[in-house]
Amino acid sequence: MTFSSLLRKPSAFAPLAMSLAAFALIATVLAAVGNGAPAAPPHDEGTPARLFQLLILLQVPISAVFAGKWLPRAPRPALLVLLLQVGAALLAVATIVWLEW
């Protein structure tokens, strides 16, 4: 099994797509409202924050299923895909951390 063929599996590309969707959500919210601090802190984080949290959180079981199925069968390509998944999730989370800082 090669890296590119393994990346076509739904359990491999779904976490990547979810990370990119979380990153796109951040970009969309920033484009719509900007990065200015509100005058008073909001009572709730809002829908975009909840969607971001769900996108990031739901990647964990999908990645675990991928790892459980493909690490024993094709260790090296599966490890590369897992590293790509983690990197994409870190990109989205690091963006939020950077914006909060």
Give your account of this protein's structure:
- The protein is mainly alpha-helical and 101 residues long.
- The chain has a domain at 48-101.
- It is 77% helix and 0% strand.
- The chain is built from five helices and no strands.
- The chain has helices spanning 3-7, 10-33, 47-57, 59-70, 75-100.
- The protein is elongated and about 50 Å long.
Q: Please state the overall shape, judged from the principal axes of the Cα atoms.
A: elongated
* Count of separate DSSP helical elements: 5
Low-confidence stretches: none
Rg computed from alpha carbons, rounded to a whole number of angstroms: 16 Å
Binned, the helix content reads over 70%
Q: What is the number of beta strands?
A: 0
What's the average pLDDT?
Answer: 90
Task: Provide the structure class.
Answer: mainly alpha
Order of helices and strands: HHHHH
How would you sum up this structure in a few lines?
With 101 residues, the chain is mainly α. It contains five helices and no strands.
Overview features:
101 residues; mainly alpha
List the helices and strands and how they pair.
Layout: H1 3-7, H2 10-33, H3 47-57, H4 59-70, H5 75-100
